[in-house]
Amino acid sequence: MTQLEAAKQGMVTPAMEQVAAAENVPIELMIRELAAGRAVLPWNPKHAPSRAMLVGRSFRTGVNANLGGSGAIDHAAEASKLNVALDAGADCVMDLSVGPDAAVSRVALLARCPVPLGTVPIYEAVEADGDSVTITPEKLLATIETQAREGVDFMTLHAGLLRDHLPLACRRKMGIVSRGGAIMAEWMQQHEAENPLYTHWESVLEMCREYDVTLSLGDGLRPGCLADAGDDSQIAELRVLGDLVRRSRAAGVQVMVEGPGHVPFDQIAEQMRMEAELCDDAPFYVLGPVITDIAAGYDHIAAAIGATEAAANGASLLCYVTPAEHLGLPSEDDVRQGVVAFRIAAHAADVARKLPGARAVDDAMADARMAFDWDRQFELALDGKEARRRFKMSSQKNGNLDCNENEYCSMCGEAYCAVRRMKRINEKTTA
């Protein structure tokens, strides 16, 4: 029985109990949202992640970190990046490895990953045959089943990109920038056949229901530049994804929808509204959105700005972008920066949505700053390690080594400290 089917029957599963305890989520609200399909709980029993998560508008905004190498994969390096992502606070991860060792990488990451892990099965199906033209529907379905049996919790499947969409995509400035989407588009063109994921959708649903794999409907036509945002091809695919959402729910399979991409800031809210309307309020999993095409080296900042707006307007899961976006595979430091930037975006959006308890940590930080309680500030900070490192570096330059004895910071210094001055004002006012 999937989490969706259990929720429809009012049953509380171990995964639901785990989330409720960890995030103080009311069971009744969780069951209602899961049963309606407005939330998903990725939790393949074959993996049974010890840190389950909810993805839905009524709950805390989650952050995903993409990992994985290309070609000759350094498995030790990817394992180290996983640790960095988890330490920085990622709620789930995706293994996007391609190449002969992709399966080895996935199995290794699954074995040590305490959070839900996702994949894009077509990457392995392509590599298994060496050429996208030789992919067969049977091979693609077999890959999906293998990964489900191994414990993958959620899968990106580009099932909404159809043959009729290809002429529309060719009118774009950048065409198809999704790796999986481009592979599928080339297959359809060269075989003069419809998307096999779409034509074999019932078989996909049978496998995903058996292993309770959450479907993440890939946006193969996500815009890769501002000029392509919201065009006819993107909307056409989104309409198909809405139909697949309804078919998935009817089969008892959990499903969420992936979203853009590069989008001008002023269009983000409308795109979130449109997804909710066309896809019956299915949870939206967005990459960014990246709000400008010229932030190379700083795309994590451009994307975090867009992600804040997206989450404030309904996106439920944010796929991080790192400083290496558009340039190369991320380093460990890139992974940390990407996760932290998107945790900031997620939290800011939760505060803006006035989720219960979301602002409590901000109020606690304000109290700690007024009390010059530095240890408490580092404890509350999204990246307390970095905050402590910078504070100590600054304090040492100014001859103050013990943070607990500092009644000011080096920004203003003791004589000009506004907080110290405000304390004196309060004392005289209340005396």
Shape: globular
Mean pLDDT: 94
Question: How much of the polypeptide forms β-strand, as a percent range?
Answer: 5-15%
**Major sheet description:** 8 strands, parallel, barrel
Structural class category: alpha/beta
Task: Give the distance, in angstroms, between the N- and C-terminal Cα atoms.
Answer: 66 Å
**Share of helix among residues?**
40-55%
Strand numbers in spatial order across the main sheet: 3-4-5-6-7-8-9-10
CATH architecture of the largest domain: Alpha-Beta Barrel
| CATH fold topology of the largest domain | TIM Barrel
Describe the structure.
By secondary structure, this protein is α/β, with parallel strands linked by helices. The chain has two domains: 45-352, Alpha-Beta Barrel (TIM Barrel); 360-430, no CATH class. Helix content is 50%, strand content 9%. It is built from 19 helices and ten strands. The protein has an eight-stranded parallel beta barrel, surrounded by six helices. The longest helix has 21 residues, at 332-352. The protein starts with a helix and ends with a helix.
